[in-house]
Write a structure and sequence with these properties.
There is one protein chain. By secondary structure, this protein is mainly beta. It has one domain: Outer membrane protein transport protein (OMPP1/FadL/TodX) (Porin, Beta Barrel). Helices cover 7% and strands 55% of the residues. The chain has a 14-stranded antiparallel barrel. Strand 20 and strand 21 form a beta hairpin. It is found in: Cell outer membrane. GO terms for molecular function: long-chain fatty acid transporting porin activity. Its main location: membrane.
């Protein structure tokens, strides 16, 4: 069953030329579909089309009757700079290998709506992260013994959802909905840890395994580099499948005012597994590679609770606002990685502290229909910073918090609509003074421009 799902998802992603999406709110996209994205990511109490399956499936019951097909594409262009504040050296993410941007993510959905029911199925990228720093920056040089390793530092994460959703109009005012999501998580990582970082992790009982004595016995040990990667358009060096669910409702308070509530569960995805190479970096012997397998344990996307309201000021002008509480603390306390040598079965376990905070997210947007052809949108979105500075990893700089967005829809015909939106993540700076997650003090500067376009047809 999992293999069949993998082939289906891979074929869909390849069809739209899908590498992997870079996230804007930790690992989450800042809204799903052009309607939501153009209005600051709202959608709990507003009709955002088939993308409702990613936020509040009850709003599928707000769509017009008929069969709806939606095909879309997200394009994410990042600007990430990491600076060693002790030396002034810096490196930009991008154009160093197959993990660089821009990043692409698919949207494909079908909805059948007939009062009082609506049913939908789709494929959406929930989010991810992507960096590529190459092999010649200060990130590839150990602090201990100052060894230029020539080893890449990168990341690429995709969380793909295949929701099966339904909505039911209980009354003229109340609609309920739910979704069962098949979730695929795929991850590439290349990361150098200095000997000082490994020592700090060991002192905190975050390093264990039968490989530890052998590594400590290497003369001139300066660091260790772990790499697992799949360089194709789809997938990662380690991946796994799982499930998640959503429940939601909307209620018409007044003819022009609607509220909505939704809850999305924490994912239940298996441990990510794949092949990997561990390089022990020696100041005297160079890089000593060990082949084996990798497991990233209990890597989940968090639960979230959402509230929303929409209000029609006039027949042509609507405003909407959402609040979300995202429970990152329960999923991103640590990143737990295990490596097992294919030669003798010796193993190494590392637990990298993350200590993410739960966040509050606020989105406000407006939609104005100019005429029967054109509708314009705008919005703003703010999310609290989830990542403590001393937990920042250069390969996971998912730090932007504020987004400005705009978008529009053009009705090609009565039942054919082209939607598009732009979202600007304002530059966010975060510093790590150095320690367990960085051997040197670093500062990241991260901004990005996201675009999404989709074609909708009703028949």
């Amino acid at each position: 069953m999992k293999c069949r799902y993998a082939r289906v998802a891979s074929a869909i992603c390849a069809a739209v030329l899908c590498p992997h999406a870079n996230a804007t709110e930790v690992f989450n996209m800042e809204g799903y579909g052009p309607i939501s994205r153009g209005m600051g990511g709202i959608g709990v109490a507003y009709d955002i089309g088939s993308a409702a399956m990613m936020l509040n499936p009850a709003t599928l019951g707000l769509m017009p009757e008929g069969k709806h097909i939606s095909i879309g594409l997200d394009v994410v262009n990042t600007d990430i700079k990491v600076t060693n504040t002790a030396t002034g050296e810096s490196v930009h993410s991008g154009k160093h290998g197959s993990n660089n941007g821009p990043y692409f993510a698919p949207e494909l959905a079908f909805v059948y709506r007939r009062n009082p029911y609506a049913f939908g199925v789709g494929v959406f990228a929930e989010g991810g992260v992507g960096t590529q720093y190459g092999s010649s920056s200060f990130l590839s040089r150990t602090t201990t013994n100052s060894v230029d390793t020539g080893l890449d530092n990168f990341s690429r994460l995709l969380v793909l959802r295949i929701p099966f959703s339904a909505a039911y109009n209980v009354t003229d005012k109340l609609t309920v909905g739910g979704s069962l999501d098949v979730v695929w998580t795929a991850l590439n990582v290349g990361m150098l840890l200095d000997a000082s970082q490994i020592g700090g992790l060991a002192a905190a009982n975050r390093v264990s395994g039968t490989l530890v004595p052998a590594l400590l016995g290497i003369p001139g040990l300066s660091g260790g580099h772990i790499r697992f990667s799949r360089d194709g358009l789809v997938g990662g060096g380690a991946d796994a499948w799982g499930v998640a669910g959503k429940l939601g409702m909307t209620y018409q308070l007044a003819p022009s005012t609607r509220i909505g509530v939704a809850y999305s569960s924490k994912t239940a995805v298996g441990d990510l597994r794949g092949n990997a190479t561990l390089n022990a970096v020696s100041a005297t012997a160079g890089n000593i590679p060990v082949s084996g397998t990798i497991v990233v344990r209990n890597f989940q996307m968090p639960a979230q609770f959402s509230l929303g309201i929409s209000h029609d000021i006039t027949d042509n002008l609507t405003v909407a606002a959402d609040y979300q509480r995202i429970f990152w603390a329960s999923t991103m306390k640590n990143i737990n990685i295990g490596f097992t040598s294919s030669g003798n079965g010796a193993n190494l376990n590392i637990s990298l502290p993350q200590n993410y905070r739960d966040t509050n997210v606020f989105g406000v947007g407006a939609s104005y229909r100019i005429n029967s052809k054109w509708t314009f949108r705008g919005g703003v979105r703010y999310a609290q910073e989830a990542i403590p500075g001393d937990s920042l990893l250069a390969v996971i700089p998912a730090t932007p918090t504020t987004h400005l967005s705009t978008g529009a829809s053009y009705a090609i015909g009565k039942d054919d609509i082209l939607d598009f939106a732009l979202s600007l993540a304002l530059q966010k700076t975060l510093t790590n003074p150095g320690g367990t997650n960085s051997s040197v003090p670093i500062r990241t500067e991260h901004s990005q421009l996201n675009a999404v376009i989709a074609y909708r047809k009703r028949f």
